[in-house]
Design brief:
Chain A has 2 domains: about 5-260, Aldolase class I (TIM Barrel); about 310-385, Arc Repressor Mutant, subunit A (Orthogonal Bundle), CATH 1.10.10. Chain A is built from 16 helices and 15 strands. Chain A has helices at about 5-10, 40-55, 80-95, 110-120, 135-140, 145-160, 180-190, 210-215, 220-240, 255-265, 290-300, 310-325, 330-340, 345-355, 370-375, 375-385; strands at about 15-25, 65-70, 100-105, 125-130, 165-170, 195-200, 240-245, 250, 265-270, 275-280, 280-285, 305-310, 330, 360-365, 365-370. A 9-stranded mixed sheet of chain A has the order 7-8-6-5-4-3-2-1-9, with helices on both faces. The relative contact order of chain A is 0.12. With about 600 residues, chain B is α+β, with helices and mostly antiparallel strands. An 8-stranded antiparallel sheet of chain B has the order 11-10-16-7-8-15-12-13. Chains A and B meet through helix 9, helix 10, strand 10, helix 12 and helix 16 of A and helix 12 of B.
Chain lengths: ~400, ~600
């Protein structure tokens, strides 16, 4: 278990709340991306801000927002002025300074003016969509930046004093061999960011890559994916990056608190179209359409999609399913306390089976997946699904 | 009563030697069926029979023939199935005759079935008239055929009639020979009415139609009839002859061949070979040769799609109506779901029935490995039949298992003798003797365990001899054998559909093969899963199912929780459609694939 993860963990029982703001604008849609996005124009941005404020007005805010995350879309695409405006909105509702405030940026959007604005707003962490350092692969993904622009962005962030920077990288890409990937990984390590996320390419439905896959133009190689996962974990560990989740690695103390908060089934408030919320025993998602979302919040409604009441059993189950994706694993004791009536015998049996199969380690009340277990985290999740919630 | 103007005969031949065509010519020549009405191969009414060139059901036909001696004769022709699976039915059909035309293809010569059928006819003490057919073929070799007749069948060569069903050569000679050489109906002086049942079929409107040969006495509508074998009584509703259509007549008398309609509604009640007598004046003794036929080969039949179960049930019940030799009962298998355990007379019978279910009832089916009927003797002396490996008792309680053997007559070109003998050895058989058929061909007489020829023997024979070999067999005795039940287990749990009874020396090889196949077909699993073959708990072969390498989605954000739960749910739903063997979910088609690609 990563020491910093535990150190940062809060005592179980006190719920911490994160804030996610979805900025739905992108200059262009990437071939692998299934997040909700639309092309920006002045009027859309104006209506977006107006509706954000309206949505914020519908929420019962806790005394303190611990973490903030601006994702997208491309939040970095907003003008410095709009970034400041968004920052002001956050500060208005967050009740004091958040412990962590992340913003997703593409290398192209990292200008000195924006960096200045983000600093002024109070942003503490930048997640940079590098994806690859190789022009050929960037091209294959439909990304618009060049490797040089990524270097430049890294340099600017460093110069401005942003020391908590993440690089998003992708592997198992069409046309990428093992060596290509290790070279990208080494390149990222050489730039010494605080955090690295390595995402195995996922073929999301309704993306261009999905279409190519279903047309047989590209192939998936699960064996290679497994191999690259393992190689990545080893390489990053050797370079001093502790893995704390399937795809996330950080220098000590630099794990993304906002995501940890989510995986531990705490609360989070989502603002903006397609943003999901989990708060006060409910879970729900905003409609993934700018105009419809504006209309919804104007009518005083939010988070209406997939709306679900969170029973203690369901919450414990999700804490288990999603918690097992983390290296620290899950402490079953507080979950048992949270949902005493659930079928824990079934979970114990499953834990025993996973341990026997070499997929999990069980120590005291803690269960954590082995590296092989982590590679099969979806299948593990599928087995756990319904054990506590039904 | 004058039986001197009646002749009852049949035609026996190897497959494809032209039996049906010749029959058609006889009907045509005697104006029984006009040429216009005569469709190609009139006597075979089932599609499948036409396609496979085999006759499964027998259709008698009565002809009237004004012979050269100036008298008008009544000729009854029985068509017989050509395959040994139906040898009992053939024997009953032969028992209804006094003579047989033995057909030999002039180009092919004597074949395995020719010999088998000729021996059956001799056994019934029939007058055998050899007919060399297809003499107009360029490749006809009359000299060879004549020599084979003498050497193999010990029939004087000069008795042979030269004919061609196709061109109509020799048809009159055949009819004249039937009258001159086949004796008139026998046993007609017996004081009471005795009628041989040599076939029956089911008609949805009229119930069971009995094919009958009257030996003595007479029968007519209104008579009370008694089936002597099972004591069932009924009233005769109608009697008639086949022309070949069913044509009612006032009475059937000694020597006649025709049909009976009664109140009997189930073919099960009418056993082939039984004797019918009048219930008012019953005969004392039955006609000779009656026996109950028992299935020799069993297999499980399952619908490929679970929802087709009812359709399969209907198909099987319908087929059973017309085929009392075909038996079935419901069974269920963990791997294959609900289906039927079916018994057949032999391999061909099994194949034909499976094909009819597919074709006539449009149900896709999967069959488990066929099994023969074993005789199992347990300590303490009781002996019983086992046709399903599942029913084999605990090995420690078994004193002895016997298996059925066959006497096979295998005809092959000389050059393949070595390979053929190896195959016979591989199949645990012995070659009892070899006979030279001619300069290029030999006949092997072999004893083989029936279970060894169930799966691929005939295919291997054909492939070794490049298609020139042929085989026929008759059932032999049961012999004690070192047989064991082999179970196939997935993760320690037995998969019932793959259990089999095998000879101990074959178990390891077959077990390994099955394990390999299953391990390969089962999709990768989360846990290490072994596929094992075991005899009474002892593992004799093992393979591992591939382990799943990677199944994890890279990204997971707050918005993904609901979405991901849905994806996992979908994945879980998919598993529900799978068959659960112990803790392992296996797609149902995995088992089917293993059973199929045999």
């Amino acid at each position: 278990m990563s020491d910093f993860a535990i150190a940062q963990d809060k005592a179980m029982g006190t719920v911490s709340t994160g804030l996610y703001i979805h900025v739905p604008f992108c200059a262009r849609s990437c071939d692998y991306c299934a997040f909700y996005q639309s092309a920006p124009d002045a009027d859309a941005i104006r209506r977006y801000f107006e509706a954000l404020r309206q949505e914020a007005g519908l929420i019962a805010w806790p005394a303190q927002i611990e973490t903030v995350f601006w994702g997208g879309g491309t939040p970095g695409l907003l003008s410095p002025k709009d970034l400041l405006k968004l920052g002001a909105l956050v500060r208005e509702f967050s009740g004091g300074r958040p412990r962590e405030w992340s913003v997703e940026m593409t290398p192209l959007s990292v200008t000195e003016a924006r960096i200045e604005a983000l600093k002024e707003a109070g942003v503490t962490r930048i997640s940079l969509g590098v994806q690859s350092f190789q022009p050929r692969l960037l091209d294959a993904l439909g990304r618009q930046h060049t490797p040089e622009q990524a270097f430049k962005a890294a340099e600017r962030l460093h110069a401005a004093g942003f020391d908590n920077v993440n690089y998003d990288l992708m592997f198992a890409l069409p046309g990428q061999d093992d060596e290509d990937w290790m070279r990208d990984l080494d390149q990222a390590i050489a730039l010494a960011p605080a955090h690295i996320s390595t995402y195995c390419l996922t073929f999301e439905e309704d993306t261009k890559l999905w279409l190519k896959l279903s047309q047989g133009k590209i192939r998936r190689d699960v064996e290679a994916e497994a191999r690259l996962y393992t190689a990545t974990w080893e390489r990053l560990a050797a370079a001093g990056y502790g893995q704390y989740e399937i795809s996330n690695f950080a220098r000590p103390g630099r794990a993304c608190l906002h995501n940890l908060n989510t995986w531990r089934m705490q609360d989070w408030i989502g603002l903006g179209p397609s943003a999901a919320s989990q708060q006060a025993g409910w879970r729900g998602t905003n409609i993934a359409d700018l105009d419809k979302w504006c209309a919804e919040v104007a009518a005083g409604r939010r988070a209406g999609e997939d709306r679900q009441e969170l029973s203690p059993g369901l919450l414990a189950e999700d804490a288990l399913i999603f918690g097992l994706r983390m290296n620290e694993g899950v402490d079953l004791a507080p979950l048992r306390a949270r949902a005493p009536g659930a079928d824990w015998a079934a979970v114990d049996a499953m834990a025993g089976e996973l341990r026997e199969g070499g997929l999990a380690d069980v120590t005291g009340s803690w269960i954590r997946l082995t590296p092989r277990g982590r590679l099969l985290a979806d299948s593990v999740g599928e087995r756990l699904l319904g054990l506590l919630s039904s | 009563m004058d039986v001197s103007l009646t002749r009852n005969f049949c035609i026996i031949a190897h497959v494809d030697h032209g039996k049906t065509t010749l029959s058609d010519r006889l009907l045509e020549f005697t104006n029984t069926v006009s040429q216009r009405v005569l469709t190609e191969q009139h006597l075979d009414s089932m599609d499948l029979e036409k396609e496979r060139g085999i006759t499964i059901k027998m259709h008698p036909v009565s002809m009237t023939y004004p012979a050269k001696d100036g008298k008008v004769y009544k000729l009854n022709l029985m068509d017989t199935p050509g395959h040994v699976d139906f040898s009992y039915e053939v024997s009953r059909s032969l028992a209804a005759c006094e003579g047989a035309l033995l057909l030999i293809d002039a180009a092919q010569g004597v074949e395995a079935q020719t010999v088998a059928n000729a021996h059956l006819a001799f056994g019934q003490k029939l007058k055998v008239i050899p007919v060399i057919n297809k003499i107009d073929l360029p490749s006809a070799n009359l000299e060879l055929c004549t020599k084979q007749l003498e050497d193999i069948l010990t029939i004087p060569g000069e008795e042979a009639i030269l004919a061609s069903g196709k061109s109509g050569i020799g048809i009159e000679d055949i009819l004249e020979a039937v009258i001159a050489r086949v004796p008139p109906p026998r046993d007609w002086q017996y004081p009471q009415t005795r009628i041989l049942v040599f076939d029956s079929f089911y008609d949805s409107y009229r119930g069971v139609i009995i094919h009958a040969r009257v030996f003595s006495g007479a029968i007519k509508a209104g008579d009370g009839m008694l089936l002597m074998g099972n004591g069932i009584k009924s009233e005769v509703k109608e009697v008639g002859i086949f022309t070949p259509k069913m044509e009612p007549c006032p009475m059937l008398e000694a020597g006649d061949v025709g049909y009976l309609v009664s109140n009997i509604k189930s073919t099960e009640d009418v056993k082939i070979g039984d004797t019918i007598t009048l219930s008012q004046k019953p005969a004392k003794d039955m006609l000779e040769g009656y026996k109950e036929v028992h299935p020799m080969v069993y297999c499980g039949l399952y619908p490929l799609e679970t929802q087709d179960y009812e359709k399969l049930k209907y198909a099987i019940a319908r087929l059973r109506l017309n085929d009392s030799a075909f038996v079935y009962q419901q069974e269920s298998s963990v791997a294959l779901g609900f289906g039927f355990r079916c018994g057949f007379l032999g391999l061909l019978h099994m194949e034909v029935m499976q094909e009819r279910i597919r074709r006539e009832y449009d149900v896709e089916i999967i069959s488990t490995y066929p099994s023969v009927v074993y005789k199992v003797k347990v300590h303490g002396g009781t002996e019983f039949d086992v046709d399903n490996p599942v029913n084999l008792p605990d090995p420690s309680s078994i004193e002895m298992i016997s298996e059925p053997t066959i006497k096979a007559s295998i005809h092959i070109p000389n050059e393949f003798l070595g390979d053929m003998l190896s195959l016979v050895m591989e199949k645990r058989g012995t070659c009892d003797h070899t006979d030279t058929l001619d300069a290029t061909r030999v006949m092997l007489t072999c004893t083989l365990p029936l279970n060894e020829i169930l799966v691929d023997f005939n295919d291997r024979l054909k492939s070794i001899t490049r298609g020139y070999g042929s085989m026929d067999y008759e059932l032999g005795e049961y012999r004690p054998s070192d047989l064991v039940k082999m179970d196939i287990m997935v993760n320690g749990d037995p998969v019932d559909a793959f259990s089999s009874i095998v000879h101990r020396t074959k178990a390891e090889g077959q077990g390994r093969q099955l394990c390999e196949k299953l391990a390969d077909i089962i999709p990768p699993q989360m846990f290490k899963i072994a596929v094992q073959a075991a005899i009474g708990g002892k593992i004799i072969a093992r393979d591992n199912v591939r382990e799943m390498r990677k199944d994890v989605t890279a990204k997971c954000y707050g918005g993904d929780i609901s979405r991901k739960r849905k994806l996992l749910d979908k994945q879980k739903e998919g598993k529900k459609k799978m068959k659960l063997i112990g803790k392992v979910s296996i797609p149902p088609d995995a088992f089917i694939k293993v059973l199929k690609n045999d």
